[in-house]
Amino acid sequence: MTFTSSYGMQAAVLEKYAEPLAIEDVDRPSPAPDGVVAHVDACGVCRSDWHGWVGNWEWFDYKPPLGHVLGHEPSGTIIEVGTEVEMVAEGDHVAIPFNLACGRCHECRTGYENFCENHLGLGFQKGAPGAFAEEVPIPNADINAVKFPENVDPVEVAGMGCRYMTAYRGMAHRADVSRGEYVVYGLGGIGLSAVQIANALGGNVVGVDLMDEKLDLAAELGAVETVDASVVEDPAAAVEAITNGGAHVSLDALGIEETCRNAVRSLRPRGRRVQIGLTTHEQHSYNSLLTDLIVMNEFQVNGSSRLAPARYGEMFRLVEDDKIDPGAVVTDRIALDGVSDELEAMTEYRTVGIPVVDEFA
Ligand SMILES: [Zn+2]
Ligand SMILES: [Zn+2]
């Protein structure tokens, strides 16, 4: 539960689907007894915002209600603390997972807060206003406010609670990328984050995409080879040639029919396909499976979703030791009123890397 006080703050509000967000003065949040309020230092703009903005995802209850504040990739500084909070304090710098967990259900108590039975989607679901705003409330802060190391830039940590931890979960836990394995994927925000992570885990990354800028960025982030899918006739065949028989791991972070299919077709026998991308209105939760290929090659098909906050330390250690650099994926720093332009550009897949809002007032 969130209470509000009477003086206001700037926020980007979803007044109408697929129309520019309204920059409005809204009530500041106050913390629930188990929650905190954070001043938002930075908030990434992600393809999931785009899905919410156009009104996708009612099929799993993530269609934001009109009047909602979007923004689910924040880092912030705690400015107000509820009476029951024990683990974090005023002045702490925190990353905030978009999947706000309850800490009490079976999944939470067995270490899988990413599957919390009572979870709330920050910036998507009613009761969890997002962080395209000066301040954001964090319920159940002992679980959902994740302190990050002092020497890390808040702009780099914006996105840790969504795109970056999602890529980490996919590569480290679900694909279990190992030394020298070939790993293949497209190069949106998650894909580029995954390039770094798989590289740090010892994988040889092959980046596939349609835009030169993304391919160049992937090479900078550690991809050993790239494939320009706008030039080659069959990207999967190109991957097979580069990897001498197909990749060990492929990731589809987009969720459209073609990338799903190519991710499977790029694998060698016994390959692992990790699915992170969710579908749009055209697929409406469904993509066809290449059944015979999966059977004949004993492909593993692994869904990957979110990351339990207790596991964030694994990522932060890689950041502290300079093995991964989340800031390298950040291509732009923008103000709150620039979010709508970024969302519009995503409709045409024109964006490269991740823009981060770091100016709110
Ligand atoms: Zn996101
Ligand atoms: Zn729970």
Describe this entry's structure for a reader.
The chain is α/β, with parallel strands linked by helices. The chain has two domains: 3-162 and 325-359, Quinone Oxidoreductase, Chain A, domain 1, CATH 3.90.180.10; 176-303, NAD(P)-binding Rossmann-like Domain (Rossmann fold, 3-Layer(aba) Sandwich). It has helices spanning 47-54, 106-109, 141-144, 154-157, 160-174, 189-200, 212-220, 235-242, 257-265, 291-297, 312-320, 339-347; strands at residues 3-13, 22-30, 36-44, 74-81, 93-95, 99-100, 120-121, 135-138, 146-147, 182-185, 204-209, 225-228, 247-252, 267-275, 300-303, 330-335, 354-359. Helix 1 (47-54) packs across helix 12 and helix 5 (160-174) packs across helix 6. It is globular and about 60 Å long. Mean pLDDT is 93; it is low at 1-5. Bound molecules: zinc ion (ZN) (2 copies). One zinc ion is lined by residues 101-105, 107-108, 116-118.
